[in-house]
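Encode chain A's predicted structure.
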Amino acid sequence: MKLLYPIITLFLFNSCSFDNKSGIWKNNDEISNKKIVSVFKDFKKIKSSNEIFDRTVKVDREFKFKINKPSASLSWKDKFYSPNNNLKNFKYNERNNIILKTKKLTKNQVDSYILYNDNNLIFSDIKGNIIVFSIAQNKIISKFNFYQKKYKNIKKSLNLIIDQNIIYTSDNIGYIYAYDYVSNKILWAKNFKIPFRSNVKLFSNKIAISNQNNEFFILEKETGNLVKLIPTEETPINNLFINNISLSNKDIFFLNTYGSLYSINKENFNFNWFINLNKTLDLNLSDLFYGSEILYYDDKIIVSSNDSFFILNSKNGSIIKKKNYSTDINFLINNNYIFLVSKNNYLISMSLKDGEIIYSHEINQKVGEYLNTKKKNLKVKNMMMINNNIFLFLENSYVIKLNLRGEIKDVLKLPSYLRSNPIIINNSLMYLNNKNKLLIVD
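Encoded structure for chain A:
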């Protein structure tokens, strides 16, 4: 093991008709531009040696998708829904009726991810509040804040995951703690001094998590005690990418801000393999790594980097396919088909088995033709597979509904602005709007 890190360092340097006044095109560019971080404005553009994919591919007329049937979801305990970070084919009533709209649940900015457990909506805000709202009682049943006065002026970024009635929380200060929201008490808390910067995963009686220095932690779930600390490559500056963790039955997959993907054995916590997905071995300010969540599916790892999309063998890390497109949002896998929205707004379906493109459509062009308007740039916030269709949730709260072949079936507008990422529970859509009110739409 003493030789491992020098080796790493050496080798890894609402349904209605629409027209031009519909509003679907409104504010997409403005919303996108607001998210540009000014500190990066003087950086040189990252050039890719690969030509960016930008062509339409029509699906074969005889091709038929064979996907898993829609099923109901009764809980949402992980920010990425499942241990492997993949979403399923959800059942949704699609009546577009508001069945619940609450009062404002917090005056503070909320996290983009909301959770659901035992008829309770659970989320956090930048003040460090963990808020538990009972759907049955239509009220907040718990509002817990772990932090002392000395942390009052620090904006908190919390990562939550739920097991039974316990919320395991890490933050950007360096704390990780377990909070029982039924008994309203802290079970344990640990301060590791360095801000955590990853999603949290639970397996067996362990917790997997990483900090901003790309150190990977295995902790005891019942006590928070450290089981193992695994150093990986540290980057000189913090980019916008958040370290990501995904699980299979036997292994943990960890992607850090350096662009290195690790496979770690769940039993002994030793490395199985690692590979760097960054396009260069020279790490400098113009070569920051940006990636996506890691999806594990059928002995394969699927992940997007700065300008490439990878399918890898999960057993040895070998690259099965590398494509010249990438994505900024979540993508979907269902029965060996991948569905993604590329950075230049192409809806792409590809085969997981061989990586070949089944079809590709430019979303802006498709929407323009469907609405009989001039095309403009749309900003997709989130995508889901619902009732055997692809739903693209836009940042301006419109929703594009497409069939599996990428043809638009409808353009909808949600009853209220979409602030959080949506979740689907009991065949209904849930989200927080721009006034931090919970909407449940069926």
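Confidence is low (pLDDT under 50) at residues 1-19, 30-49.
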